[in-house]
Structure formats: C-alpha cells, structure tokens
Amino acid sequence: MRIAQISPLYEAVPPLLYGGTERVVAYLTDALVDAGHDVTLFASADTRTRATLVPMRDQAIRLDPAPLKSDLAAHLTLLHDVRRRADEFDMLHFHVDLLHYPFFENCCGKTVTTLHGRLDLKDLPQAYRRWRKFPLVSISDKQRKPLGEVNWVGTIHHGLPSDLLSYSPRPAGGYLAFLGRISPEKRVDRAISIARQAGLPLRIAAKVDAVDKAYFHNEIEPLLDGDGIEYIGEISDEEKSEFLGNALALLFPIDWPEPFGLVMIEAMACGTPVVAWNCGSVPEVIEPGVTGCIVESVQQAVDALPGMLALSRHAVRERFERRFTAEVMAASYVDVYRHLLRQEDAAQRMIA
C-alpha cells in the first residue's frame, strides 16, 4: 500500500526531546515500512525515518533559533505540497488536527485523521460537524466523548517499538519518577506530595513550556528544596530506559482529560508500574493490579505504593508487548486503511 504520513512541523520525527504526536508518527511510520508498505513521510528535514522523507522545513519549529517564524505559513506549505501529490498515494494519513479539511474535501474518502489532542474545546464540535465526512481515529475511547456526531472509524492506542526501551527486572534507583511536562494539569505538585508522604525520593524529568514558566517558578520551584525532590529537566529517548527502568514506579497524577498518555506505556516497556489518576484515558491503559493502579487522591496513591512495588515487572513488560507495541498499532491502522479503501472503491463503482 502507498501511504502518506503527514506530520506536524513543531518537532522533528521523532522529537529530539519532549514531544508526543511526532513521536507516535515516527513509530507508526517505521512500523508500516517494516510491514512492507511504501510510506512517504512529510515532516521537517531533521527527521529520522525508514520511510521516504519529503522535507517540508529545514528544521522543526520549536528548536529553530530564528526569532520570528510562522507555524501557519509552514503548515499551509505542507498541505499544498501534499495536495499536489495526493494522487500518488492510496491513503493520506493526517496528524495535523483539522487544518487540512478545506483542501481535501474532494478526496476525503482516501484520508484518515488521527486526533492527538483534547477535544472538549468550544469551537471544535461545529467545525467537525461541518466536515463530518472525514474519517477520524481517536487514541482512546474517552478522548472522543466530546465529539459525538462525527465519522469515527476506530480507536487505536499508541504503540512503541518493542526494542526502543530496555526492560529492567529490578529497579536500581530506589526512587519514584515523574516524566513529561510541568504544567497545572500535569500536577507535579501531587507527585511531590506523594513522594514526601511515602518517604521516597522523587526524580522529575520534565519540560517547561514558555507559557508555564511563571507557574513553574511560583508554584513548583519552592517545592524543590533538596529534600529528596530532584528536578533534572528534559531528557532524550536514549535516557528514558535508565530513568524509567531504575524507578520503583512512575507517578502520573494528571488533572485533565488526557487523550492517551504516552509516558504510561514508556514506563510499562521498562517493566515499571504506574500510579495514575482516574482521568481521561487512564482506565483504558492501566490494568489495576497488573501494570499499576488507578487512584483519586494523594492518600490513595501513598497507600497503594507498597502493592505497586510488589507487582511482577515481567508481567508489566508482557502487557506492554501484547497491547502497546508499534507493530500492534500499525496493524490496527492497516485494518482501518483497508476498510476505508474498500468503502471508497464501492462508492466510486456506484458513481460509475
């Protein structure tokens, strides 16, 4: 199958540091190539891929040092080039929210759009109803709840390459871990409270966006008093195996409708159990008593930790391999592609 993957240009594919959507695009693209498909990836030039790369920008937007840049202009150029070459592909797979809709209305049957973000925003229902023919994939069942009357064709959970992160049968670090981004909805303050009440060290590997710098300085920095709470900043993929694998457990104390939560399956790939809040996709990802626990308060999290440390890390890794590898994800997308292409072929025959 000839497949085009259309990535956002904010991060490289995969990102050099923090980044979710472009990371999933990277894993999916390479898994499709490994499965024998002819894949073309539209992304920034600093991308690393086994597919045919069409570089749409000299480098990803976030790490570009240019003081003035236009993400809108970059993405409009991307969509123009994809539209010009659309006939070269059997399937166009978009990861840019709904930005492409006005350009591809006459061929929406050969497109699929994976929605990677939250959907409970004021203006989204009207827009998605306006372009309701476009097939959509959600990354969790919970994510799709705010959008009812649209063309959902499946829910496909994210996956990682099975060899990306190393399994760690015994955590050598003796600490709890927080990995991701520091912002009000990620609730690193909860993670700090859990660690302190449990009497365990906490290591925080996280990005701070410009919009969250005031929150970090005012709310979080005062809590980093050296009392077993260590902030180490952003880490790369190469550092995640050691960081997550040596942790007793990953804390995922979110306070928002998380569409998926890639860090949960990154921890599971290392054999590390996850203590997660009952928000968003968490109940779809975490199997209580097997890969972690689901809690609704700091005290519940503290009380659950002894049980989490007794879980079989081998069983955690086994669940990852069964449910959350890139190969599993790619196979599910191929099923969706084939279903949509059969529908499109039937529609064309009716017209003829």
What does it look like?
The chain is an alpha/beta fold and 352 residues long. The protein has 2 domains: 2-161 and 325-351, Rossmann fold; 175-323, Rossmann fold (3-Layer(aba) Sandwich). 35% of the residues lie in helices and 17% in strands. It has 11 helices and 13 strands. The protein has helices at residues 21-34, 71-84, 124-130, 188-198, 213-220, 237-245, 262-269, 282-285, 298-309, 313-323, 326-351, and strands at residues 2-6, 38-43, 52-55, 91-94, 111-115, 136-138, 152-155, 175-181, 202-207, 229-231, 247-252, 274-277, 292-295. The strands form 2 sheets. It has a 7-stranded parallel sheet. Strands 10-9-8-11-12-13 form a 6-stranded parallel sheet, sandwiched between helices. It is globular and about 70 Å long. It starts with a strand and ends with a helix. The model has no long low-confidence stretch (mean pLDDT 94).
Q: What's the overall average pLDDT, rounded?
A: 94
Secondary structure: number of strands: 13
Number of helices: 11
Biggest β-sheet strands, sense, barrel: 7 strands, parallel
Relevant CATH superfamily of the largest domain = Glycogen Phosphorylase B
SS class: alpha/beta
Poorly predicted runs are none
Q: What is the topology, as strand order, of the major beta sheet?
A: 3-2-1-4-5-6-7
At CATH level 3, the topology of the largest domain is: Rossmann fold
Do you know the CATH architecture of the largest domain?
A: 3-Layer(aba) Sandwich
Q: Output the helix-strand order.
A: EHEEHEEHEEEHEHEHEHEHEHHH
Helix content: 25-40%
What is the count of distinct domains?
A: 2
